[in-house]
Amino acid sequence: MVKESKKNIQNKVEKRVEKDENGRKEDGLFDKRIWRVSDVARFLDCSIGHIYNLCSDEKIPKRKKGKFLFFIPSEILEWIIKGDVYEN
Fold first, then answer.
1. Domain spanning 31-88: which CATH class is it, in words?
2. How far is the C-alpha of 2 from the C-alpha of 56, rounded, in Å?
3. Where are the domains of the chain?
4. Nearest 10 degrees: CA dihedral of 70, 16, 8, 48?
5. Which end of the chain is more exposed for a tag (fewer CB within 10 A), N or C?
C-alpha cells in the first residue's frame, strides 16, 4: 500500500503546475533533479526558516556541500510518505 501511495503522490506532483508572479504557468520545480531550500519550502508550502529548522534538527533528508544545502526530490517525497522523523 505504501508503494501505491507513493505512486499516487508522484502522479499528483507531476501534474502539479505552479504559476509565477505574472500568472503564467510554470512547472520548473518538478523538472529539477536537485532542489535548494527555497524549492523545498515552495513544495511543502512553508517558510524557508522552517526548512532550516528541520535541517538543523536532522528531521529532513538533505545533502550538504560546503555551506550549501541540497535536496533530492524523490527523498523528500519518501520522507513525506514515511510520515515520521528522518533517520540519518
1. mainly alpha
2. 28
3. 31-88
4. 30
5. N
pTM to 2 decimal places: 0.66
pLDDT tens column, 17-42: 455 555 555 557 767 899 999 999 99
| Nine-digit cell string for 43 | 513544495
By the 8 A CB rule, do 6 and 77 touch? yes
- How is residue 14 written as a grid cell? 507531476
Residue 49 has what pLDDT?
Answer: 97
CA-nearest of 43, 46, 40 to 61 is 40
| Nearest CA-CA partner of 88 in 52, 50, 57, 47 | 57
Beta strands in the chain (DSSP E): 18-19, 25-26, 63-65, 68-70
Measured on CA atoms in the order 3, 83, 36, 64, is the torsion positive or negative? negative
